[in-house]
Amino acid sequence: MKRRYPAILHTDDGTGYGVTVPDVPGCFTTGETLDEALASVQEAVEASLFDADEAPLARLATEVLGTAEAEGGVLAFVEVNLSFLDREPIRVNISVPRNRLERIDAAAKKMGLTRSGFLVQAAEQLIERR
Fold first, then answer.
1. What share of the chain is helix, strand, coil (3-state, %, to 5)?
2. What architecture is the 2-85 domain classified under in CATH?
3. What's the gap between Cα 82 and its chain centre?
4. Is 75 within 8 Å of 6 (Cβ atoms)?
5. pLDDT band with cut points at 50, 70 and 90 for residue 128
6. Which residues, 6+ apart, have CB-to-CB distance to 118 below 8 Å?
7. Edge to edge, what strands does the sheet with 28-31 contain?
8. Assessment of whether the complete model's pTM goes beyond 0.70
9. Would you give the distance in Å from CA 9 to the centre of its chain?
10. Please, are residues 45 and 27 in contact by the beta-carbon 8 Å criterion?
11. 3-state class of 60 per DSSP?
12. Distance (Å, whole) CA 75 – CA 61
């Protein structure tokens, strides 16, 4: 699911840019160029909504322009992919050597996790290290 949000672009010196997405509390990002700043909006929205159950609705541009955040900035619109909020479990079929599966199950049990929970947690930790 994608949603278009109004964003406010700021620059003090024309070489560094800031982007605020007023409808997403705490969502701010920067870039050395305008393209870099806009490209980092998706990641900033994901960080701001990490623990959220749903995404806030987008206000009308005229409503955003009347806010203090918009003062001195330029209005733009950013499209954000909100699929990261979909936490519905999906059954997957994977193949694992038997001896590895036994190690996974033993480690999961020791940690008080299910096999699925253990594998998801291990995958998340590996992703975060990248």
1. 40, 20, 40
2. 2-Layer Sandwich (3.30)
3. 8
4. yes
5. confident
6. 104, 107, 108, 111
7. 28-31, 17-20, 2-11, 74-81
8. yes
9. 19
10. yes
11. coil
12. 8
pLDDT of residue 58: 97
Model confidence band, residue 130 (pLDDT cutoffs 50, 70, 90): confident
Residue 8 bridge partners (DSSP): 20, 75
The three-state (H, E, C) secondary structure of 76-111, written as one string = EEEEEECHHHCCCCCCCCCCCCHHHHHHHHHHHHHH
The C-alpha angle 69, 74, 80, rounded to 5 degrees, equals 80
Question: What are the Cα distances from residue 85, in Å, to 6, 21, 102?
Answer: 20, 17, 32
